[in-house]
Each structure stands twice: as structure tokens, then as C-alpha cells.
Amino acid sequence: MIKDGKIWLANDDKGENIFILPKMANRHGLVAGATGTGKTVTLKVMAESFSDMGVPVFMADVKGDVAGIMAPGEDSENMRERIERFGLAEAGFSYQGYPVNVWDLFGKTGIPLRTTISEVGPMLLSRILDLNDLQTDVMNVIFRIADDHNLLLVDTKDLKAMFNYVSEHSAELAPEYGKIQSSTLGAMTRAVVALEMAGAEDFFAEPALNITDWLTLGAGGKGIINILDSSSLINNSRLYATFLLWLLSELFEILPEVGDLDKPKLVFFFDEAHLLFNDAPRVLMEKIEQVVKLIRSKGVGIYFCTQNPRDIPDGVLAQLNNKVEHALRAFTPAEQKAVKAAAQSFRENPEFDTYEAIQALGTGEAVVSFLDETGTPGIAKKAFILPPQSRMGAVTEAERQQAVTGSLLYSKYAHYVDNDTAYEFFQRMGFSQAEAQAAAQQAPEPTLPGMAQGGYAQGQYGAAGQYAGQDMYAGQQMYGNQYGGQQQVPADPYAGLSKEQIKELKKKEKERRKAMNSVGNTVAGNIGRELGKQFGKNMGAFGKTFGGNVGASIGRGLFATLFKK
Hints:
The protein contains 20 helices and 13 strands. By secondary structure, the chain is of the alpha/beta class. It folds into three domains: 2-114 and 206-413, P-loop containing nucleotide triphosphate hydrolases (Rossmann fold), CATH 3.40.50; 117-205; 430-562, no CATH class. Strands 1, 2, 3, 4, 5, 6, 7, 8, 9, 10, 11, 12 and 13 form a 13-stranded mixed sheet that branches. The chain is elongated. Residues 443-490, 518-529 and 535-565 have low confidence and may be disordered.
């Protein structure tokens, strides 16, 4: 609740109010405690208060009960007792729901939340795919090649198309980018396929989230609470962790420096925070620590929620200044050591032993410490957390669906869009290897002279293979009709143009033909290789291999001859 312009979160054991100062809320925080000690209720009370203050909020809903914040709380004897104990009626407490957007990476239980391969970047993508150091280096090179060739990487099929392109053109790319082994790219492709099976096809797509859409207010000036349904996402911990890290990185990139504000621009609550740091490589840990340290100056507060403070690396834990520690249990020496470490992170209160107090806390109780006006951590206090004004439990499917479809952002993000990207570019430029193999199996057994007379599958594709149809750049019929494979002479494309215009057109034509030749050589080589294998099949395994290589050379030679200008 808001009281005197401050966030009233709890009362101490003497009945005095305990506040979080809004201008210190961007100094980050920690909510920790064992299962069933009241962490979710604490998160809800904090989120409600920020919303009342006009601060947008992001929350991850792992267990499905956070979404209850959209519905008003329900009266009960227990709630009446707590309202009376805290004196909430006099402070204006009332049961109410809050403006909510529900999101889902898989688009099943919320507004589809998507981003692109390019926006996630090679480092975080390698983290999702669990790549080793060599494969991570190759992933960085793949992104560099795509950038250098102006190829858009939006979804996983774009990424696999890039792998295929680099594998087929490794010799040509090696002088500039280094030798890349096909076996390495094969392993990376398998990792991408496994990620697709886990649901990443839905996540890496367009329209991508514009994160500024989260910096909006709802009715009455309340901050909108954006809830990520993570009940199924949590089963893929790497995807969950990488998504959250991408959010932080994206905010860090787009938001301007604002210093210390009277209240935050946005507050994040990351549940199951230990998943962010499990098995994270050193370079990624350094990035997380850097973002957490610097993003507060962008007006963003981050609150990690986990069972034990030791789940958070020391470098990050040192940045979390507003602390709520619910009960921890210590039955083994390792657990006792963890509780002692948690107790030592608080300023000592001479009135009680923090170590003993943390173990004796009941549900809804906590040891807390918040920053004061000067930014100094307060001494540890035993606190009783206020009840939320919204519903304690989960919402019904009908209520959830109404919240999803009733959102102003639903129409913007609900429908998948497949734009023209790297995959479509390679599709236009030639057959994929799989298509060439399938075509070779379906065609009558060819002879080498027949190939010279019109190329593979002459009747279907014409003298120029796939390029016998529409020219993708000029839209003119260039090399033959669909059936006859006979060449047609196009009209003079330079008629009526100035010298400067002709020069510019010839320059573009040269660039186009260079791109066509690059991919076309690969296509012709693949087709020729398959034909060569067919031709040499009577010679055994060596004959098929040798014939395939000969066929590839002949195919590339034919392509060069057919398109020589």
C-alpha cells in the first residue's frame, strides 16, 4: 500500500510501519525464503504498491498464482483479522484487482511474447543451445557473416539456413572468417532442432516485443503489471533464464540515463532467480553483474526472488540493497552455514540474534532491511508482511482468457508474421540440398551428354535449372519457359536511359550475378554430385563417391557455361 508517498510493506514487532522509499527502489532487492514462507504474497504486495504509484511492473509467474493480482481479493475471517491487526481499514485498504497483461512465450496461455535471433545475439543464443567454447566462437562468426551480407536472422529456420550456407561455402569464406568445420555446424544444427522441439519456434518469430510497450499506465494512472506465465517455461530452464537476461539487456540498451528518480520507471521481479546463474559461463556472469550494476541509473529496479541468498553470486548479491528474508531451515551443516551467511548480510540489531530469528520466522513474517534517505541500509527488523488487496490464489481460465484478449496489446502481437528473411533469400536463390537429392531420386537415370544438352530435369526446369523462371530481381522472363527449356531474348533493358542510369543498372546487375553465381554454383554442384553418384553406382562405394565429386565439378562447370556473360 501507499502511505505518505512511501511503499508500506510491513509492520515491525512493535507495530511501527516499515517502508520502502520509492527513490531508493531502483537500488534493487532480494526476496528469499524456504517454500511456503510467504514470498509470493510479499511479491504481490510490492507489485500492487508500485502499480498504485504509477510504476509499471514485470513479474514471472512460475506457480500460476501471481496472476491472481488481476482479481479483487476475497473476504475471509483471516483477512479481517489481518486488516484489523495492521489498521488497514483506516489507511484505505480495499479489495481490488490491478491492470494486467498476461504473456506466454509459447502463445498458449497469454499474449505471444516473441523476439528474434538477431536481437538475442550470439552469446545468449549460445547459452540457450548449451554450446561449448568452440561452437560459441563459430556462432559469433555466423552472426558476423550474416551482418556482412545484410541477411536478417529472425527465426530458427533462418539460423539453420545460415549454417547450411556457411557449410557449403566454407572454402570461399575461410580466407576472411577462418575455416569452419561442417561437423561443428552439424552439432549446432542438432542443438537448434532440439530447441525447436522445446518450443523455441514460437519464441523466435515476429512481431517481436517492443519493450517500450511495457512502460505504459492503465486506468486511473496505475502501472500495468506484465505477467509472464512461466508454469511450462520453467521446464526449460535455459530458455527461461536467457529470456530474462535478454529482457535486462534490451532495457539497458534502449533506456536513457536518468540517474536517481523520485520513483523507478519500471520494476522487475524475477522468480526462481537461481536459474539465471546455474552453470552460467564466466563471460555471461560478468555481463549479468554489469547490467545489474548499471541499469539502476536507467531507472529500473530488479528484485530477485529465490529460496536462499546463496543462489545469487556475490557480485550480484552485493547490488541488492532492499532485503526481505523469510524463514530458512537449517538441519545440516551446509544449511546452517547458508543461514549464517544470510544473517551476516544484515546490519546487526542488538535487540535480537538475526541467525536465530531467521530460523524461527512463521509464514508471512520476515527479517527486513531497506535503504534510508541517505542510501544507508537500515538495521535488521523482524516484520509482519501486509496482506495483498488482490486475490491470494490463481485465476480461472475464463478470467485469464478475458485478460489476454481484452488487452490493448493483444491485436498487435497475437498473430504470427513470417517476413522475408535469410531463409527466404536462400530459397529464392536455389535448391536446398535436400530438394536436390529428392529431385535426383525422382528423375530418370541421366547421362552426362544429356546434362550438357539442357541440364538436369531439362523438361521441368529448362536450360537454366531453377533460374529458368522469373528473374527475382528484374521480374523478366530471362532463360526459358517452364517446359521447353528454350532461351528467349529479352527486350533491351537500357532503352531510353541516360548514361548514369545505365551505369547504375549495370553495377546492380553485376552484384546480382555475383550473388546468383555464388549460390548457383552450390546448387549446381549439389545436383551434379547426386547425378554423379547415380552414374557411378555400379562401381561400388568408391565409384559413387568419385562420381559424386566429378558430377559436382561438371555441374558447376555447366552452370558457369550456361550463365556466362
